[in-house]
Amino acid sequence: MDIFSQLAAGFANVFVPANLLALAIGTVAGMLVAVLPGLTLVMGVVLALPFTYTLGVTPAVILLTAMYITGTYGGAFTAILFKVPGEPLDVPLLWDGWRMAQNGRPAEALGWTLFAAFFAGILTVSAMVLMAVPFAKFALKFDAPDYFAIIVFGLTSVVALGGASLTNAFISMFIGLFIATIGVDETFGAERFVFGVPLLADGVEYLTVMVGAYGLGEVLVRFEQGFKTAPMSMGAKVQTKLPKLVDAMRMRATIARSSLIGLLCGIVPGAGATIASFVSYGVERQYGEHKGKLGSGIPEGIVAPQIASTASVGGHMVPLLVLGIPGSGATAVILGAFLLHGVQPGPQIFQTQPLMVYTLFASMFVAVFAMCLLGYFAIKPLVRVLYFPEAITSAYVVMLCFIGAFAARNNLTDLWMVGLFGVIGYLFERFKFPIAPMILGCILGPTAERTFQTTMISFQNDWTIFFQRPVSGTVMLLAAIALGVPVIKAWRETYIPAIRRGRK
Amino acid sequence: MDKPSRKDTIPYFIVLGIAGFLFWEAGSIGSMGSADRAIGPNFWPRLILGLAMCVCVFELVFRWFFDMQGMGGLLSQVEQQVAGEQGGVEEEPVEYHLGRLLTGIGLTLAYVWVLPKVGFAVASLVFIALFIWLGTYRKTKVVALVSVLGTLILMFLFMKVVYVSLPLGTGIFETISVKLIGLLGIR
Questions:
Q1: How far is residue B162's CA from residue A341's CA, in Å, rounded to a whole number?
Q2: Which of A159, A241, A243, B45 could form a disulfide bond with A107, CB atoms 3.0-4.6 angstroms apart?
Q3: ipTM of predicted assembly, 2 dp
Q4: Chain B residues lying within 8 Å of A192, measured CB to CB
Q5: Which residue of B has its CA nearest to A504?
Q6: B1 belongs to a structural domain
Q7: Model confidence over A316-345: pLDDT tens digits?
Q8: Which domain holds residue A373?
Q9: The whole model's pTM is what?
Q10: How many structural domains comprise chain B?
Q11: Which residues of A touch B26 (CB under 8 A)?
Q12: How many structural domains comprise chain A?
């Protein structure tokens, strides 16, 4: 069957009641999570995970993916109306979106956001469908060294591109990779780092790491500060006025630039929606037709970041589905949902479970429509959750963290792990260590080790094999470039002058 | 790059120390990789821990000897540049309250400890109320209502809809939990 007939089958399957219900819940939950203060998109997706345990894999992944795509749009409302970015990716919307609202045109600002989210949503899902299948066919030829190289590239680019501190991101990643080694080793069957503690013998569930570090850790940070989110005042009318097609057409260069930036930032692990949003705004400021007016409340300043952030979602889903490699916190949780249901994403998934994959694709198209309809018609009641006291929301976040971790294995000792990783998550936040590399290291660690060991056994411990094969060699080179460029840049601009000053 | 304080190096010393200990500990992992196979079960963790130690040493050397701190990722540099040029985002100064933090951690760990003994219903009700109260929200009636209703909703949702067998507790608490479950129509 070709892509279009498979997609048609997927669309038919989306409208099965269980899938449609999951989609509706995911869309509303994604919007709420993006709007609610104290809840980040990734945290929201983590908290939704336990509700998917009893669902089939298809509705489970539909729910989480709908949350993910909707979450890139929902935060725009609070950024534009209240100057409170729901997510870090919404920060660039403050500069023109909020300014436009201040200039007396909030409905117009919301209209441009809606247009951008809709356009980018349809574009990113279409691009994902068209890219995924050929990429999967190519990936079927990959061997253990190629997979290892791809994991190395995924991890290094997460560290090298996005991290505010390379060293901290590296340490976070190594901690994650180390956590994955605790327990019984897959290849040799040896116990590692158990220290006689039965709790550690089965290894550390990555779910407890995710729930603890993302959920409980963030709550502890806000608890310490006494939940001081500034009170909201509904100064502006919550109404959306859609832009005219002629006005949108005038912005085609901005739309093309930001779409490309969003898709590229999505495909490269580590450069997610937030980076896409900032980079797109920066590029618009450099090359935009109205670059001089940017920041004064013009539509280009809204469209560029919103298109880029939503467009990054499809890009992120491609490596997740085709290679089983998540490039961000949210896709790591979606991978977790696949694994919890016994499905390993990878190129084979397109042959073994085509209906599930195409149902997911189709559900993302429907989610884009649902998100825009919700944004247009139901945003007024949705933004009312802003008045919900943060202390109450946070108490329930903690409860959901614990229930979620407990429900996975019905094991009370997992709750101690959540507590431990909650404290570690707090320390990470406090000392500015990023959490995402630790989570990715924890999830990808076992595959990295397995492919490394398999390669070493197959090629008589010749580690140069990673650089000799065409695919693994190219990917290793890309990893070296991803890591080398910021290191060399910082070395030349900052470290060498510092060393010279030290000598003097 | 800002000049770092010496105090900021503590996390790197801690990670270095722990990684060093674990690297040494990894030596005692079964040596099945000896003789004909150079790579055994301890090779991968030692590789990771060794690299982690190298990164810590790198950071410490630059912080101690050159008053420099870690370099940022490429795109985050662009992000900071764009934000900086637009005047950034107004952020309120962060206040740290060790006492409040320790109370929060203590309360959370106490919840985990008492959960198997007193059961989900009682432990959660008390935890939610205390957490909201200590989280500086002081409207007593709202706190009471939210904790009671919230506990019942969570019980119903997870026991009846998601089929999670939440802890019932022991002794008198088990009796209370069972009665509550009956009232909610869960069993």
A1: 15
A2: A241
A3: 0.88
A4: 26, 29, 41-42, 45
A5: B66
A6: no
A7: 888 889 988 887 778 888 888 888 888 889
A8: 3-229+237-503
A9: 0.83
A10: 2
A11: 192-193
A12: 1
